[in-house]
Automatic annotation (TrEMBL):
The lineage of its organism: Bacteria, Bacillati, Actinomycetota, Actinomycetes, Micromonosporales. Its EC number is 6.3.5.4. Keywords: Amino-acid biosynthesis, Asparagine biosynthesis, ATP-binding, Glutamine amidotransferase, Ligase, Nucleotide-binding. L-glutamine binds at D100. Pathway: Amino-acid biosynthesis; L-asparagine biosynthesis; L-asparagine from L-aspartate (L-Gln route): step 1/1. GO terms for cellular component: cytosol. One of its GO terms (molecular function) is asparagine synthase (glutamine-hydrolyzing) activity. It comes from the Bacteria. This is asparagine synthase (glutamine-hydrolyzing).
Length: 592
């Protein structure tokens, strides 16, 4: 787990090494254990290291193999690297380290860009073919590891974070109006390749991009689950439960590979509790688990310690209960915003940031339960999709998920920022129109698993944990688990109020009180109910000179929100004022 960056030229000029090295401080939190740099011909690579596998200097990056003529920087973990290493040794390759990074180099040499199909893990890497002056960029199937891009005259730069590219300089920081539309409509999700800044893009998940010495670029999408099933499904509900639990056992076991201890972020919900249960089942003892809670606000509880304590006690974990008082809260909000590569509205960001700060003082790697709700229909907007005709799926999805419809957005955005077309609905329609996903619910789950999940919960966890040099692994997003969930009949997923197949499979493994509890989340009441210093900060950001000059929002709408800061909620219950305020706080934080 690390931070990567670099520049590739295709105009005959050498890379601007000074600009590339300016990325390193912005990547330091992702890799506090060392840094490296390499430059040859048209390519320059930089790296910040977090030691997880092969703690020796042999695992340092950039990793260069002069014999094979390859150099690479890599962020993530290849969970099956030992099996691949054995296969490559049998094919005649020799290794000088025990790292998964070196496996990527040899695997690419043997199988070319198809090597990514053999990787079980989370990864973003940049690989240089020295002889042909070719750059290969790749990202894992579910986009767990980020990779941002900034093109300029005769070159492309890339990095694990958006602020690292800003630090390198030469970026068009104008706002992208289409991305702004997505942010305001599509529940603050900006799908790839866009970001809110016009000059920075992101490589889509499950994509390999090859850039030649002339600047020619070719993308290959190497994975996409179908979300379909045989017309006559031969498996019973019990067999589906058995298959799902077997896949999860494998996924959890894979994510224990490390040369350091691995803990669990335990929210007290079913998903993280099941991870603890499966680790205990596999013989893990003294497992470190961590839960966080906040002070209540407006009558809303700020913790779920009752359930996390129950699970920790049941499985005998080394449990750490982290309570956050009011004095730490407002500074933590601004620290979380500083850690964001893109503006992320979810108040979970603050919880994950504070939790990661505490956890990183004790441990370096954790497993976490993200992804189960998106792949197994755990959210409350999925049941309304169950009986919708496939032809009506786009409109039904927009009705339950979009924060604002296009017509309403005209009363919120300033006229100069309004598009003359509904970019967000058009994006969803195109995604729903792709082959597969025969039912409306399948289409919604595919949309959320491949788009929303990547650029909301997954990005949130990566940004907040890596701000403290903490590696988070997500077994529910093992691609084999996702493929199995996609094929599972919709009714089994919707049963028992959502995630029915998982709840049924968990009986006898997780305490019933956790399975039958109301659905929870990381509660941060002080953001849902803005008041005091945080409300003052939001007001200041939205009325500051940069915000006035930018002029994103209609004055009357802004005044209405500021007059009644907790009155307006989006479709999914978010604070509408916080959505606007967060965007301005983030833009001003990065200096735009």
């Amino acid at each position: 787990m690390c931070g990567i960056g670099g520049e590739f030229r295709f105009d005959g000029a050498p890379p601007d090494m000074t600009a590339v090295e300016r990325m390193l401080p912005a990547l330091a939190s992702r890799g506090p254990d060392g840094e490296g740099r390499w430059q040859q011909g048209p390519a320059a690579l930089v790296h910040r290291r977090l030691r997880i596998i092969d703690l020796s200097d042999a695992g340092a990056q950039p990793m260069v193999d002069d014999e094979l003529g390859l150099a690479v920087v890599f962020n993530g973990c290849i969970y099956n690297y030992r099996e691949l290493r054995d296969e490559l040794i049998a094919a005649g390759y020799s290794f000088r380290s025990t790292s998964d990074t070196e496996v990527i180099l040899k695997a690419y040499h043997r199988w070319g860009t198809a090597c990514v199909q053999r990787f079980y893990g989370m990864f973003a890497f940049a690989l240089v073919e020295m002889a042909t002056h070719t750059l290969v960029l790749a990202r894992d199937r579910l986009g767990i590891k980020p990779l941002y891009l900034a093109e300029g005259p005769g070159r492309v730069r890339f990095a694990s974070t958006l602020p690292a590219l800003l630090a390198a300089g030469g970026v068009d920081t104008d706002l992208d109006p289409v991305a702004l539309h997505h942010y305001m409509s599509f529940h603050s999700v900006v799908p790839p390749p866009r970001t809110i800044l016009a000059g920075i893009r992101k490589l889509p998940p499950a994509t390999v991009r090859v850039i030649t010495a002339t600047g020619r670029s070719t993308d290959t999408l190497y994975w996409r689950p179908e979300f379909t099933r045989a017309a006559a499904d031969p498996m019973s509900a019990g067999e589906w439960q058995e298959r799902l639990m077997a896949a999860l056992r494998t996924a959890v076991r894979r994510r224990m590979v490390a040369d350091v201890p691995v803990g669990v972020l335990l929210s007290g919900g079913l998903d993280s509790s099941l991870i603890v249960a499966l680790l205990a089942e596999q013989g893990q003892t003294g497992l470190a688990t961590f839960s966080i809670g906040f002070e209540a606000a407006a009558g809303e509880s700020g913790d779920e310690f009752h359930y996390s304590d129950l699970v920790a006690g049941h499985f005998g974990t080394d449990h750490h209960q982290i309570r956050i008082g009011a004095s730490r809260f407002v500074p933590a909000v601004h620290d979380a915003i500083a850690a964001m590569s893109e503006p992320m509205v979810s108040h979970d960001c603050v919880a994950f940031h504070l939790l990661s700060e505490e956890v990183s003082q004790r441990i370096t790697v954790v497993q976490s339960g993200q992804g189960a709700d998106e792949i197994l229909a755990g959210y409350d907007w999925y049941p309304p999709m169950a009986n919708v005709a496939r032809a009506d799926a786009v409109e039904a999805y927009a009705r339950v998920f979009f924060d604002r419809r296009h017509d309403a957005l005209g009363g919120h955005l300033a006229p100069e920022w309004m598009l003359d077309h509904d970019a967000s609905l058009e994006f969803v329609a195109a995604h729903f129109a792709a082959p597969g996903a025969d039912t409306a619910l399948d289409a919604a789950l595919r949309q959320d698993s491949l788009v929303m999940l990547v650029d909301d919960p997954v990005k949130r966890v990566d940004n907040m944990t890596m701000a403290w040099g903490l590696e988070a692994r997500v077994p529910f997003l093992d691609h084999e688990v996702v493929e199995l969930a996609a094929a599972c009949p919709p009714g089994m997923k919707l049963a028992q109020g959502g995630k029915g197949v998982l709840k049924a499979a968990s009986r006898g493994i997780v305490p019933d009180a956790v399975i039958d509890r109301p659905k929870g989340y990381f509660p941060v009441p002080a953001i849902r109910h803005l008041s005091g210093p945080l409300l003052d900060d939001v007001r200041d950001a939205l009325t500051a000179r940069p915000a006035r000059e930018r002029g994103l929002f209609r004055k009357d709408y802004l005044e209405e929100l500021l007059d009644t800061p907790n009155a307006q909620r989006t479709t999914l219950g978010s604070n509408a004022l916080w959505q606007l305020g967060l965007l301005e706080l983030w833009l001003q934080r990065i200096g735009v």
